[in-house]
Structure formats: structure tokens, C-alpha cells
Amino acid sequence: MNEHLWPESLLVEAVHSLAIESGLLRATRNEKRETRNEEDVEAIARRLGLEAQPIETPYPDFESQLPKMAPALLQIGSGFLAILPRRASLRLAILSSTGKKIRIPASTIRSALCSNIESPAIQQIDTLLTRAQISPAKQNRARTAILREQLSTTLIRGIWLLRLPPSASFWLQLRQAKVPRRLLALGAAHTIQYILWILAWWVIGANVLNPRTDQSWLWLWALLLLTLVPFRVLITWLQGRIAISTGARLKQRLFFGALRMEPDSIRHQGAGQLLGRVIETEAVESLALSGGFLGLVAIVELAISIFVLAAGAGGALQSALLVAWLAITAAMSARYYRRNRTWTDVRLSMTHDLVESMIGHRTRLAQLPPDRWHSGEDQALERYLKASKDMDNSTAGLLAIVPRGWLVLGLVGLGPALARGVDSPAQIAIAVGGMLLAYRAFKRLAAGAWQLAGAAVAWQRVAVLFHSATRPEALGSPILPGAAEPHKMVDASDLVFRYNDRTEPVLRGCTFQISAGDRLVLEGESGGGKSTLVSLLAGLREPNSGRLLMDGFDRQTLGAEAWRKYIAAAPQFHENHVLAETFAFNLFMGRRGIIGPNDLREAEAICAELGLAELLERMPAGLLQMVGETGWQLSHGERSRLYIARALLQNSELVVLDESFAALDPENLQRAVECVVKRAKSLLVIAHR
């Protein structure tokens, strides 16, 4: 195995070659790749525009999960094993350092990666099997079973999954998930299914109209119907795979975009508006996928209907009327889309008002006169009722008139042929069959247009999340020299910052230095720009002018990821949150990598120093207790100390606390200050004057 490992000195080449062979990157000639010294797998992948996700897996599941991990990097000793996605072969493929692709069993990889934990246990197991007089033929199977049981709680680490980041081209992500290929297969399967269906009914129809029926034709009809079954199964399977793959990547992209949004872009939006936008994301996925499937099937049916009608008694006239009715359907769909957009605007406006009223319910009851509790509700309901009626009328027209109107128009197109009376019964039957096939197609097309219009309206509010995922983030220079003045950890000179909606800057000519080990307090009046300065230090905002350096480098040179490692900030109470998760999750939100037992012990020690030990004792599950709005309710002071612990657990060079001690009583305040001064490498505390 060692001869197939990539040495640590070739780690950049390993990640790059694995990405190219897996189809995540395109090969380019004469590409120059540089990296920082001691750069890890995640940083290398990020510089290549990829994502390396570190994972851990239980020992019993490792061998079965290994094929699903590819493309992946496994650290074995001081080297790395590059695993390629499995193609047609049942055996795994690895990419050696010489560029060769080698097939290898998953058990061999498990033995190489887990030998250090298997060896002590194997010696004891072999001794046990010998004493139990297990036959040599059964010893290997028994040894494997006992190993899986003894090491069931052991986690295998040193695994990185190489994937496209959510910010990558969405089309490229869909291609990686084989969605376009499956869409083509779905269209082909539908086409073949309808051709077989038409042939089956042509066979039975020709025999019904024929005075003498041959039994062999009935067998052919039954065979055609049986052939439809595997195609129906294939269509259902393809639809499910497409829906799951597309929906998963869309949700991941929207979630990533929500976290990438600039703070200033949502600072004027209320909770109701944000909730309405989140609700619309579900509509985009469900309506777009279901409407897309219906539209695809309808297009296939309509295309076949045109040829069937042309071969029937109505001829070209019925085909031309079908195309004309398609244009009318498009116009009705456009009208429905406009009315749906108006109705959605009114509905989301009411959602915003309702959520804002619920959040401020206690304030309204205490301070708002009772005669103003329902002010404006009647007008809002009236607007909603009018918009709903308009949209319902358009919906009824789209879903009812479109398919039934085609039947009337199709009969009009068949009228001249019936009046002539020269067509055979078979041609008339073909025309009627084409009309019914087009009728079913129009029913599906109307339903698909109804759903796609809803998805398009929802997309107008969700698109900002989708596009925010591509907001560029500073990667930093590949190779950084040593800092010119290492004693100056933070060096700010003439910083100026103004919000977009203000003419006067919040910060003007701000200059200061913070050295390693400093313990500083910044006092000032409310509205003086202290929290804005914290956001600049944390990298949430960029200064309009001036210079802000960390260890002698600005944020563009150092990179956003490295900048976040240097500074851990705890914003003001109203800008910090406890998520509906476990207490440990909220503590380790800013911690990189996989959390282990030592990390949990460190968290318990910090919580004890902050005076949260009694709280953890009261919690039935301790650190694993669910907290937040739907879990264990924390007091104001407990939340403040949770935010302080969250910042300390990031082990950053500089900890910035923005009024984090304001809600603490004197006893807990003294504990928190002692803990912060003891634990923080460098400290900046923001306080009111």
C-alpha cells in the first residue's frame, strides 16, 4: 500500500489530480500551482475552488461506506490515499502518485488505515479462537465479527470528501449528479412508452374494425402492454432520482447563500420578511420539480399528438388548431403568473405584519391601546380577498378551459372531414384518439404551467439567496512571507466606514494597534461606532478606506478563512443567537474540525469557570441538552455567558467581546472576567462609558 500513497510534499498534486480524474476540475496545460507551507487538505481544496469535508465514520461501517465516499483522500501514516469514484467495476479504484489507476478491495484499504487499532485486538482474538478450538476455515470470519463488535464505538478519522462547493456553477453541480443525463433518459423513456401505447391501441383497434380477428394479434397487443411495465418502473425511478438530487443541491445552495449574504443587505428587513423568503424556498423546489415533470410529459404527448392528428381524418387542420391552442394556453399562463405574483405580494405582506406582531406581542399588550390592536387588518384582508379572487379565476380558466376548450376546438377541426363523409372509420378513430391524447396532454400542461408559475413567483424572492452563494470571498496569497512587525497583531490606520444609507461616516480616522497578550477595554457612547469597529475586525464588513492589518497582512492577502482563525468576536446580545440545537452545538459553532472528548472536557471546564456548572447539572442531558426556542430556555445572563464561552472555545489569537458583561450580576461578572482574562490570548472588551 505504501507505494501507492501520495507523500505530504505532493499533497497539492494529489488533490488536484484527484479532482481532475473525478470530473470536478478540468485539466489545463502549464498550470502553476503554489501553496503555503503547512497548508492542510481543506485549504488546498478551497484554493482550487473545491470543498474538502473532514468526516469520521464508525469502524463497523467504514468498509461498506468507503465506495460512497469517493472521491476522497485518506491519511494513512504520513501519506495520503486518493480514492476515485467507482465506475462499472465492483472494486474500488485508487489514483497512485505515479498517475496510475489501480483496482483494490475495500478490505485492503481498511486494513492499512485501521492496522494501528486492529493489531492489539487481533492478538487477543486469535488467542481466544485458538482456545475455543475454532477451525482455521472459520477463524477469519469469526475474527472479523468479533473485531466489528469490539471496535463498534471506535471512530475512523483522517478522511476528507472532495466535493464541489455550493458556490460552484449550479449546472456543473447538476452534471456531477447526472441530472441532465437522467432528464434525457426520462424524456426518451416517456417517448418510447407512448409509442408502445399507441401501437398497442392501433393493434386492438385494427382488429375490432376488422370482421375477422386473428388471435396472434391479441397476443401482440398483450405483449406490447407488458412491455410498458418496465418503462413505467424506469420513469418512476428516474423521476425520484432527479427530484432528490436536484432538491438536495438546491437546498444546499440556498442555505449556503443565506450564510453568505452581506449583513447590510438584510439589516432593514424584519423577521416576517425573512420568514416569508424562507417559506418560498420550499415552493421553488416542490413546484418547480413537479411542474417540470408534468411539462416534460405534456410536451412529449403534444409532439406525438401532432403527428397522430396529421395522420387522422382531420389532417393538417387539426394539427394547426392544436398549435394555435398552444399559443392561447401560453397567454393564459402568463395572465395567471401576473395575478399569482400580485397575490403573493399581498400574502407575504400579511405574513410580515403577523410575525412582527407575534414577536412584539407582549409589548403591544402593555403599551398599545386596545382600540388599535387590530388597526389595518380589515384593509389587508380586503386586499388579500380581491387578489385571491383574481388568481382563483385565472386558475379555473387555466385548469378547466384549456383542456376542455381543446376538445371543442378539436371537434371543430374534425367537422369538415365528417361532413365530406369520405374518410374510413380507421382514420376517424385515429383523429379521435389524437384528440384524447392531446386532451390529456393539455391537462398536464395546464397543471404544470400552474405549478411552474408559482415556482417562478417564489423564485423572485429566493433568487437573492441563490446568487449570494457566489459572492466572492478573499482566498489570500498562496505564499506569505513573515510579518514585518510580529509584535503588532492588529494594526489599524485611518479607518473610515459609512453605511450605504448614510452620508456621514460612522468611523473616521480610526487608528490603533493591538499587540499579542494585550488586555484592552474600549469605552464610548452609544452610537459611537464601537460595534461597527467589531464588525470590521471580525471581517463582516470592509472599511471604505484606511488600512487594517493582521500580523502585517490585510484581509485580501491573508484570506477570509485565515482571518477568521485570528479573531473570535461575540457581537452584542441582540445580534447573537442561541440556535435550536444542543448546548454543545451552540458552544462549538465556531470550532473547526471534528469535536472529540478532549474538546467536550475543555467546554465543561470553561462553563464551570463562567458559572454555568449548575445549569449543566440541572439539564438532564448536560451538554447534549436541546436549548433555544424549542428546547431548554436560557436566561439573559446564561445566554451572555454562552456567547462568551463560544468565543473562547475558538482558540483565536484575539477575542473581542461587545458588551458581553452587561447582563451579568456582580458575582457572575467577576467569574466571567477572571475566566476571559485567563483563557484569552489577547482580549478587547467593548463597554459603554
Keywords:
689 residues; alpha+beta; 4 domains; seven-stranded antiparallel sheet; four-stranded parallel sheet; 59% helix; 12% strand
Provide an overview of this structure.
- The structure is a single chain.
- The chain is an alpha+beta fold.
- The protein folds into four domains: 2-163, no CATH class; 168-260; 271-469, ABC transporter type 1, transmembrane domain (ABC transporter transmembrane region fold); 514-533 and 551-688, P-loop containing nucleotide triphosphate hydrolases (Rossmann fold, 3-Layer(aba) Sandwich), CATH 3.40.50.
- The protein has 22 helices and 14 strands.
- The strands form three sheets. Strands 1, 2, 3, 4, 5, 6 and 7 form a seven-stranded antiparallel β-sheet that branches. It has a four-stranded parallel β-sheet with strand order 10-14-13-12, sandwiched between helices. The protein has a three-stranded antiparallel β-sheet with strand order 9-8-11, covered by helices on one side.
- It is globular, with a radius of gyration of 33 Å.
- The two termini are 65 Å apart.
- The model has no long low-confidence stretch (mean pLDDT 85).
Major beta sheet summary: 7 strands, antiparallel
- Residue-averaged pLDDT, rounded? 85
Question: What global shape is seen?
Answer: globular
Specify the structural class.
Answer: alpha+beta
List low-pLDDT spans. none
What is the C-alpha radius of gyration, as a whole number of Å? 33 Å
% residues in beta strands: 5-15%
Number of strands: 14
Corresponding CATH architecture of the largest domain: Up-down Bundle
Number of domains: 4
CATH fold type of the largest domain? ABC transporter transmembrane region fold
Q: Which CATH class of the largest domain is shown?
A: Mainly Alpha
For the record, give the distance between the C-alpha atoms at the N and C termini, rounded to a whole number.
65 Å
CATH superfamily of the largest domain: ABC transporter type 1, transmembrane domain
Number of helices: 22
Question: How much helical structure, as a percent, in the residues?
Answer: 55-70%
